[in-house]
Amino acid sequence: MSKAIVRRKVKAEENLELLPAFEPEVDLVETRDYLRLLADMPGFDREDMDVLVGDDSIIIRGERKAEGIYQQSEEFRILERKMGKVYREIPITTKIRADGIQLYYEDGVLVVHMPKEEVIH
C-alpha cells in the first residue's frame, strides 16, 4: 500500500473552485468505527491528486494529464478517455479523527480511511 497523499483540514479562505472535466465515481462506506471512501482515479499520478478533509465534507481534486501519452503526429479516431481537472465534494455528517486519516492509492483506486471520533455517553 502507498503512503498518504495529503491529509489536512480545509481552510476557509482556500480557493477550491475548479472547472472539472469530470467527477470521479466514489463509494462511501460506514461502520461503527470508521468511514471509508473509495474513488476511481485510474491514470493519475499521486502528486497530481489532492485530498482535503473538512468538518462536513471530503474533497478530491486533481488532474489527469495527457502529456507524454500522445504523440504530435497522431490523429485521434476515437477519444473517450477523459483528461483534465477533476473535482468531487462528498458531504459527511459524522465527526472524524483527522489525526487518524489514512490514504492509499493502488490499482487506480484512491482509498481514504477515516476513523470516527469516539462518542462518550
**CATH third-tier fold name:** Immunoglobulin-like
Q: What is the total tally of β strands?
A: 7
Strand percent estimate: 35-45%
The number of helical elements comes to 0
What is the string of SSEs from the N terminus onward?
Answer: EEEEEEE
Principal-axes geometry comes out as elongated
The oligomerization state is: single chain
The CATH top-level class label: Mainly Beta
Largest sheet: 4 strands, antiparallel
Question: What is the rounded Rg?
Answer: 16 Å
Main sheet: strand order: 1-2-7-6
Percent helix range: under 10%
Determine the N-to-C terminus distance: 36 Å
Count of separate structural domains = 1
What is the CATH architecture descriptor? Sandwich
Low-confidence stretches: 1-13
Structure description:
InterPro entries: A-crystallin/Hsp20_dom, HSP20-like_chaperone, Small_HSP. Residues 17-121 form the SHSP domain. Belongs to the small heat shock protein (HSP20) family. 0% of the residues lie in helices and 37% in strands. The chain starts with 25 loop residues before the first strand and ends in a 6-residue tail after the last strand. The chain has strands at 26-30, 34-40, 49-53, 57-64, 84-91, 102-106, 109-115. The chain has one domain (26-115): Immunoglobulin-like. It is built from no helices and seven strands. Strand 6 (102-106) and strand 7 (109-115) form a beta hairpin. The strands form two sheets. The chain has a four-stranded antiparallel β-sheet with strand order 1-2-7-6, with no helix packed on it. A three-stranded antiparallel β-sheet has the order 3-4-5, with no helix packed on it.
